[in-house]
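Problem: given the chain below (200 residues), write out its structure.
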Amino acid sequence: MRPATDLFDLHADGEPPADPFVLARQWLPGDEEPDRPRVTLSTIGEDGYPDARTVLLSAFDETGFAFHTAAASRKVAELAAVPRAALTVLWPDHQRQLLVRGDVVPDDDARAATAWTARTAYLRQLAWLNTDELAALSLGQRRARWAGHRPGQPGPAPSWVGFRLRPRELTFWAAHPETASRRLQYVRTDDDWRWAHRAG
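Solution.
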């Protein structure tokens, strides 16, 4: 991790980069790294109240931040009704946080297949078996079902779906041991990004 004095000021003149993805690539692991960040995905519930859960960040680039989930999950229904969301990344040391807000679109099949191969064997099996029916069984029955499962076909489970959050706003938050925390907020304009420092 870079020192706390250099969380935003990547240029020699002390100015942050004009492109927020330059900073995002400094903060987040590359897509090829197997240890994927856990992020909080916030959506608008079908009852109108906020909803949130933790998902893995599959990948990210200038086209958006990708995550994958079960097609029958509540989040998929919520995104179908209101295709907007926020992702929050909190670093374990609590010195950094990234909030991404924007519109959500389906991810393409090729990217979904790439994300699938990067998942652990446990998470791939979970995608095949994680249903309300399984959750209602006793521990012994769940263990037996899990141990006896054999995927019916290679490749992603039929329930495996992906989405990409296309950011309209990225807000980087950083603490500092010797002064107040602060935020660096980027907001998308018609053809560029506008940035401003905000109180932490």
